[in-house]
Amino acid sequence: MNKIVSKDNQGIEHQGTKEKFWFGEKQDKLFKIGKHEGENWAEIVAFHLATLLDIPCAEYMPGSLRKDSQIKYGVISQSFINKEDGERLINANELLVKLIKDYDPDKTYKQRNYTFSQSIALIKLLTPSLKENPIKQFIGYLIFDVWIGNQDRHSENWGFVATNTKPYLAPSFDHASSMGCRVGSTEKQERLNTRDTGYSVEAFSSKAKTAMYNNGKILKTYELSELCYKHYPEEYHFWVEKINQVSEQDMVKCFDELPENWMSNIDKKFTIKLLQANQKQLNKLCAKN
User: Fold this and answer.
1) Percent of the chain scored above 70 by pLDDT?
2) Run of H or E residues at 41
3) Whole-model pTM?
4) Which residues form the HipA-like C-terminal domain (predicted)?
5) Among 21, 43, 78, which residue terminates a domain?
6) Is the same domain home to 132 and 211?
7) In angstroms, what CA-CA distances link 108 with 25, 114, 115, 188?
8) 3-state class (DSSP) for residue 67
9) Which residues pair with residue 160 across a beta bridge?
10) 193 pLDDT more than 80
11) Tens-digit pLDDT profile for residues 37-60
12) pLDDT, mean of residues 242-265
């Protein structure tokens, strides 16, 4: 299950802050080491959860690299870009800077001009030359973020694939900041066992923030779901129903794709509880309306 990465044919990946590099004969495989060990399992579990929802997603698998007599663990991702066909990834920030006055393309966080409405406007602007229903697909990404508690959908973590003919919305990628993967085992156990509703897993998940803003205020994941429902109720219902079809057993199977000891039993219990809490919250909007 754990693929060993070769030191041969390594290339540099400049985007992001994690230690990463491209490798392989065609430089089409990315090896990325999480800053926190939990980020590695989160990336892989998120990929398998996205697959359950039929959300286009970059594929991730476990990997390791021997470096300076030590073994470093990370994830391997096959590039979804076919460079031989002239494809390239255009991150949203490269386009938003042309659409929004005073937009700083090098600023990933605290970017007050990065909003839900501006992101949708960008997709609509390109809609005539895009593959079918990119808005529905993008709403799927955002609802998925809410479900897994992903707090890292900044404007470099989504974009478009430019081709020789028509561009299309790129598959979802980079979900390492999700499912409370950086929270320690002690805190997770305490939140699972507490009778204090203000310290529960549900309370924890309700505080998750996105990278998007609305009226100058950073959006929490639940607030983002409300915007999705308000403007795109049909798409919202479609993706929430997809999530409702995922059973606890399906979630557990996603953990089976990990190497032994990558994810503790506490991690697994907390993750399931968090996913169920977020699923319940997403369904509340459907029940209200």
Assistant:
1) 91
2) helix 37-52
3) 0.92
4) 102-184
5) 78
6) yes
7) 31, 9, 12, 28
8) strand
9) 90, 169
10) yes
11) 899 999 999 999 999 999 999 999
12) 96
